[in-house]
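User: For my dataset I need records formatted as: sequence, then structure tokens, nothing else. Please produce one.
Assistant:
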Amino acid sequence: MTAIKQIFKSKSFSSLLGNGMGAVLGLLTFSLLARFLDKPAFGAWLVFLTIYGIFDTLRIGMVLNALVKNLAQAKTEEEAGRVIGSSLFISLVITLIYVLLNGIGFLICYSLDWIPEYQSFFKWFILIAIFSLPHNFASWILNARLEIINMSVLRILSQLVFIAYIFLVIRLDATVEQTFLGYTLAQILPSLYALFKSWAGFHHLKAYTREMLSQIFHFGKYSMGTLIGSNLLRSSDTFIITSTLGSGAVATYNVPLRMIEIIEMPLRSFTVTALPGYAKLVADGKFEELREVYERRTGLIFYLLLPVSFLSFLFADWVVLLLGGSSYLDAGILLRLFASYMAILPLDKFSGVLLDTINKPNLNFYKVMIMLAVNVAGDYLGIFLFGNLHSVAIASTLTFIAGMLFGYYQLKKYTGIRFPYVLSQGWVEFIFWIKKIVNRHGSQTAQ
């Protein structure tokens, strides 16, 4: 019982619980929109999210990892204030540039009557970019300080607002414009709450310094490139399928792809809690301890996710039916193909986290670019040869294998991480926790 209590009280479990609730609500949102919107409208909504996601990734990439790393290593409150103020300054500048570019883009498209079906996207891009900034930046600060519960509150509040709007409005008036409006409202309310609680760090803005701006920028430029590459890695499938197979195929492909969010849920939880700890070990020069902790934790998560991967493969048709309804049942085979690489996701993701931590964000960037190249080439080749979505899913498997191999080659070179030890030490850690929980439960039962 004590072992179980320790797990429940840990930061990792709090993050897992928060991300778990967030993932469930995200899947519920996706499932409701898939049912209430027709396929072309749902496809347009997915295209909108994909394009906006590129900007959001740019803003996150430039700031988040640098903010977490520098806050974890800050020795005083004054230094922490400089980190927060400088990070916020860069976030505001990026948002302003994005707003201006969208305004210019709208004027050009409107005057030349380009892509009329997507012209309304521009105004929603601008509004969402502005209104989402306070609660997004607050969640990054809370992430760095490992205030996991408060960070989860912001995320879940946004999702609950959107779900409520779907039931009250979109269910009755299922249009893309109503969906945009609901999503915008879902950014405003948590941002107001973050400002009210003083979580957004705006009071630190005046503490920014030129030196800290430069430090965050030079780290963030690679981190930003990495996250943009990761976003394009996911988005490239959407863009390529849209241009070759149509928006209906995009909707079909994205239904089973949402299952990946369940796999990424524990990954986000563990990376949120791992990055500050890794950064502190690097700052203290404890590289041997860093290597041991990394091998045990990454291997443990690999074995924890194996059952999820297996069950996703086994019950793929039921999962697709639950997510998208009967009209998407033909996507079951896609989920089985996705399940083939689900288990290796932690091996790829954690290699990127450690490369950032040891001040090698450039190598993490190169890793993602290699994955993007493999994915785009694989998508086009597969669609050209076979003309179906199955080849796109197979290309995704090859993509993550390529990223994993490159990441571990670099980690072995710079940190001595041993890939076989990740698997062996992870198994030892997995068995240790299983035995500890079973033994504690058995002793409590005997009493």
